[in-house]
């Protein structure tokens, strides 16, 4: 691991129920659904590990034992991986805060059902920006109706979230970076959403959050049957070398 990343812990949010996929995979938590011969969570971990990140915490809840068993396996011997189980459903924000005592100075946060194939290094570079306390990756899409869109000022600061309306825009890619101290200042027990509660509170407290918007970003989430069906092609296209074995803990996946 690069010395420069020793102050970063990656938290992957893998506790959701995946209600829209329950009819297809009733006995499998969404991040553990098999894609291209491995759990989707494997590919997400491999992609982030390829950027030099080696400390991973999986926030688990629904059918947690399956993820805990996988986490204890030997897919990534060079990584430090642990699970933290929610005592009750906590949402994305509550699940993140439930892991905060396991985190270093910065937290890279990933939704366990999505892959954003650009912008990770730029997001990590925000740690060096004076007074910046975090940020997220934004993805340009033709229609924001499914996702909602980001409100960004002329200097790249996040100002808020728009409701789901048709049309082109920048949507949340589900990959965040936060200073741990900022999260601790907002800590509370219970269910919270990162997008709808934690980040609006950060903005209200005048935290400087930046949006990284790389051009032409391959992006997928497996939250619907339609996107799950596309995931096999997506993974084979963008992470094909990983099919030959466990992904490296550093360096790009060709």
Q: Main traits of this protein?
A:
alpha/beta; Spore Coat Polysaccharide Biosynthesis Protein SpsA, Chain A; 7 helices
Can you give a write-up of this model?
The protein has 254 residues and is of the alpha/beta class. It has a single domain (3-137, 173-188, 204-240), classed as Alpha-Beta Complex (Spore Coat Polysaccharide Biosynthesis Protein SpsA, Chain A), CATH 3.90.550.10. It contains seven helices and 13 strands. The strands form four sheets. It has a seven-stranded mixed sheet with strand order 5-4-1-6-11-8-12, with helices on both faces. It has a two-stranded antiparallel ribbon with strand order 2-3. A two-stranded antiparallel sheet has the order 7-13. Strand 4, helix 2 (64-71) and strand 5 form a beta-alpha-beta unit. Helix 3 packs across helix 6. The chain starts with 7 loop residues before the first strand and ends in a 16-residue tail after the last helix.
Arrangement of strands in the largest sheet: 5-4-1-6-11-8-12
With helices defined by DSSP (H or I, 4 residues minimum), what is the helix count?
7
Rg measurement, Å? 17 Å
Tally of separate domains? 1
Query: For the report, how would you describe the main beta sheet?
Result: 7 strands, mixed
Stretches where pLDDT is under 50 for at least 5 consecutive residues are 243-254
User: H/E series, N to C?
Assistant: EEEHEHEHEEHEEEEHHEEH
CATH topology: Spore Coat Polysaccharide Biosynthesis Protein SpsA, Chain A
Strands, total number: 13
Q: Report the average pLDDT across residues.
A: 87
Q: Which structural category do the helix and sheet elements fall into? A: alpha/beta
CATH superfamily placement: Spore Coat Polysaccharide Biosynthesis Protein SpsA, Chain A
What is the beta-strand fraction?
Answer: 25-35%
Roughly how much helix do the residues carry, as a percent range?
10-25%
């Amino acid at each position: 691991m690069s010395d420069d990343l020793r102050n970063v812990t990656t938290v992957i949010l893998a506790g959701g129920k995946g209600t829209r996929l329950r009819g297809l995979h009733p006995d499998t938590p969404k991040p553990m659904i098999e894609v291209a011969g491995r759990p989707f969570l494997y590919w997400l971990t491999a992609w982030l590990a390829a950027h030099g990140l080696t400390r991973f915490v999986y926030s688990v809840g629904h059918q947690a034992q399956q993820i805990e068993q996988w986490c204890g396996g030997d897919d990534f011997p060079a990584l430090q991986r642990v699970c933290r189980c929610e005592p009750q459903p906590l949402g994305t924000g509550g699940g993140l805060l439930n892991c905060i005592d396991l985190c270093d100075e910065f937290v890279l946060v990933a939704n366990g059902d999505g892959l954003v194939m650009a912008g990770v290094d730029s997001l990590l570079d925000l740690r060096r920006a004076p007074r910046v306390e975090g940020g997220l990756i934004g993805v340009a899409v033709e229609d924001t109706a499914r996702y909602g869109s980001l409100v960004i000022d002329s200097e790249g600061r996040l100002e808020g979230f728009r409701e789901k309306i048709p049309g082109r825009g920048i949507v949340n890619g589900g990959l965040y970076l936060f200073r741990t101290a900022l999260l601790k200042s907002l800590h509370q027990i219970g269910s919270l959403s990162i997008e709808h509660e934690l980040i609006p509170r950060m903005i209200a407290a005048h935290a400087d959050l930046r949006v990284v918007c790389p051009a032409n970003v391959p992006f997928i989430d497996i939250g619907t049957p339609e996107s799950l069906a596309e995931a096999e092609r997506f993974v084979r296209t963008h992470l094909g070398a990983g099919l030959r074995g466990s992904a490296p803990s550093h360096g790009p996946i060709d």
